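Please review the protein record below. Tell me whether the encoded fold seems credible here:
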Amino acid sequence: RKAEEPEEKLPWNGKRRNALAAAVVKFSNLSEDSEPKGPVAVNWKAVAAKLGGGITSAECRAEFLSLRLDGGNDDDGTGDGSDGGKRRKRLKEEILKELVDGVQPEVIQAATDAALATASSLEEAQKAATVGVIAANARKRAKEEEDAASRILMEILDQRMFKLENRVALLDDVEGMLEAERVALELERRDLYTARCRHWFGGG
């Protein structure tokens, strides 16, 4: 029997993001008419299973950071984007995605779980998690930039050291040439002194 092929992963669009928002609420310990008893909790595996399309729980957490949870709805992904509000919302989502781009899934998970454990609502948890992930990413990028600056500085120092070593070698060569010239002049001086002495004493 032919092995089952893995489920094709579907892209995020407005409809799927609306479904994610609904699933997050559905599979959390929140209800519309009461506050959660204790920290907010979300069953991310159930959320991912509800969405299907090959989406993982880690991807649901990451997408959760830019979800609109204030009661507004995303468009279905078929509009032309002419509405100013939709354009601003999409721009915000793009900025958030850029800020969290490259962040390790475990970092997103830790930030999201910590935010959910201390927040009293999904909106508060989302904001806290987003700030935490952005801070972690900023720290990572700052470390990368610091490392890059250190490498550049070391390269500059190596180049300066190489130039200094070349100058020292050149000075050594010049010193050797001057020493040879000094010896030659000393020998010439001695020859001249000998010739003068012979002339004085009639030996010339």
